[in-house]
Design a protein that fits this description.
The structure holds 2 protein chains of 2 kinds. Chain A is mostly helical. Chain A contains 1 helix and no strands. Chain A is rod-shaped. Chain B is about 55% helix and about 10% strand. Chain B is built from 19 helices and 8 strands. Classes of the chains: A mainly alpha, B alpha/beta. Chains A and B meet through helix 1 of A and helix 2, helix 13 and helix 16 of B.
């Protein structure tokens, strides 16, 4: 396959994508906290 | 003796009710895998990579969309000398050939018009016509197969090709987003569905190391991979994209989903259009299940298609309508055998539903916030208004019961115990009945006043149940051996990519 000169923005893009993917773990945690909140509200207050 | 028989029957029925929770539990598992996607990224093996890429577009009466698609392809952030667009005109009867020829004149050497004089055999045949021409010389190093209406973001192709720097990767697919603007309630439902089915599900497949399907609108193959799988697209199935994906992985090549390569596609704006498209996909999946029956749940070295997790995901989606019917029928039977046990089993099932609904809806909206802004209402009402009300009742039962009782008192209506039991029975039947209501939305769409009635029925029954009803209809068609006709989804050129 044809390989051209590496471009400086490639590493920058990959770093941004990796950051986004790591952020998904945090977002999953937020969603799980929401689930726990619903369960706690259900058990304690209703 | 009779006591033991009834006892066994009761617990069998409870087990069958809980079968309805299996797709929900697996959906949660799938979304949890998304959270660890960052640990299985392929970027460490990527490099800036610009293989000579042939872009293959099948086109049958695509005059409304093909011109814009070619223009956007010419704006790709990719070396112009490494790009050739081959449009296979499948004996179009509209202005498609004129549009392609005009683009070929505007971009000489970059746009090639190929014509089939006898068309209508389906997408796979059209693609094979183009592949024969492209593979006849050795210019092509990679091939991108796409649909005529798909609009590529400028960086999307190079974000896909960088994965081919790893010779173990045979194919790469992109994140297809629903792009019709201004759109309507249907396209917004699809927009949300694509967050769950593409952005989330395909990330989880990356984690498992096995991809179920390369999106038909964005599949990039290395030449070596294409030649390994026979240099042609399967014509025996309605799901030729999935066959290509399976063959690639069976050949030992890796398939990667690149979530940051975004492309935009026009999706059906009517229930009838969606029904036609998805029934083709669902029938294709039934065919694939049969064709690759020797693979399921049989882990082997070289590929992960036989992994238990992948098998569970595949079958939970395929069998979901049957599981819903099974849970509903078992609840109804239990209701007549032991009323309290039915209520307890229903509670377990519905608590699972609540957890799944809250976790998946909130996480999916967070995965793609830009789409979420447009589709959050459809996300909330994805299971249907009545199911969402039942979910709310399961969580906030006391306030809702109080409100309902208060409302009934105000209206001077008294609910008898029989009426309360009838309401419970309705809820049990609703588990499967929602599919019938969603089907009615499709049936009424083309009738008088359908414009008003059909959306109400869809919101009531739910978009999720509509997809289940389509799968159920696909089983029936496959069982009856109905002719496998390629029903093309009509495209009107409404895709507008955000600036």
């Amino acid at each position: 396959l044809t390989e051209l000169e590496p471009r400086p923005e490639f590493d920058h893009e990959v770093s941004a994508d990796v950051r986004y993917e790591r952020g998904l773990a945090v977002k999953a945690a937020v969603a799980l906290v929401l689930v726990v909140a619903v369960v706690v509200v259900r058990m304690l207050f209703i | 003796m009779a006591f033991h028989v009834i006892l066994t029957l009761k617990w069998v029925l409870v087990a069958l009710v809980l079968v309805g929770a299996v797709p929900l539990v697996l959906a949660n598992y799938q979304f949890l895998l998304v959270a660890v996607h960052f640990r299985r990224l392929h970027y460490d093996k990527c490099a800036p990579f610009f293989p000579r890429t042939a872009i293959l577009i099948p086109a049958w009466n695509e005059a409304a969309v093909i011109g814009a698609s070619i223009e956007r392809l010419m704006l790709l952030d990719y070396p112009r000398e490494a790009l050739r667009i081959f449009v296979v005109d499948d004996a179009s009867t509209d202005e498609t050939p004129d549009v392609i020829l005009a683009k070929a004149a505007k971009y000489p050497g970059n746009v090639v018009h190929l014509r089939r004089n006898v068309g209508g055999e389906g997408k796979a045949h059209t693609l094979n016509h183009g592949l024969a021409v492209i593979l006849a010389d050795d210019w092509m190093e990679a091939i991108l197969i796409m649909d005529a209406d798909v609009i590529y973001e400028p960086q999307s192709l190079r974000r896909m090709t960088c994965h081919l720097a790893d010779p173990r990767v045979g194919s790469v697919t992109a994140y297809i987003k629903e792009g019709a603007r201004p759109g309507n309630f249907m396209t917004r439902f699809i927009g949300y569905e694509y967050i769950t089915a593409q952005a989330a599900a395909r990330r989880s497949q990356n984690v498992l190391g096995v991809v179920a399907c390369l999106a038909g609108g964005a599949q990039l193959h290395s030449r070596a991979n294409l030649e390994t799988i026979g240099s042609r697209i399967d014509t025996a199935s309605l799901a030729e994209d999935t066959v290509t994906t399976f063959l690639t992985q069976l050949a030992g090549n890796r398939v990667v989903f690149e979530p940051h390569a975004t492309v935009w596609a026009e999706e059906p704006g009517t229930i009838g259009g969606l029904w036609k498209q998805r029934q083709r996909w669902a029938r294709g999946n039934v065919q694939i299940t049969r064709r690759f029956r020797h693979l399921w749940f049989r882990p082997r070295a070289g590929h992960r298609l036989g992994s238990v997790s992948f098998g569970l995901f595949w079958f939970s989606l395929l069998l979901q309508p049957l599981m819903m019917i099974c849970a509903s029928a078992s609840l109804v039977a239990l209701f007549f055998i032991e009323y309290q046990l039915a209520w307890a089993a229903f509670h377990v099932l519905w608590i699972t539903n609540v957890v799944t609904y809250v976790f998946i809806t909130s996480f999916a909206l967070l995965i793609d916030p830009s789409t979420a802004k447009r589709v959050w209402r459809q996300a909330l009402l994805f299971p249907g208004v009545i199911s969402v009300f039942i979910i709310a009742t399961a969580v906030f039962s006391d306030p809702i019961v109080w409100l309902t009782a208060h409302a009934l008192r105000l209206a001077q209506v008294t609910a008898t115990p029989t009426e309360v039991h009838a309401l419970e029975l309705f809820i049990y039947i609703w588990l499967a009945g929602c599919m019938a209501v969603a089907y009615l939305a499709k049936v009424t769409e083309t009738r008088r006043l359908g414009r008003f009635i059909s959306p109400v029925l869809l919101y009531t029954g739910g978009y999720g149940p509509l997809l289940c009803a389509i799968t159920l209809a696909a089983y029936i068609k496959e069982l009856r051996g109905a002719e496998a006709v390629w029903d093309k989804t009509e495209k009107t050129g409404k895709v507008a990519m955000p600036a």
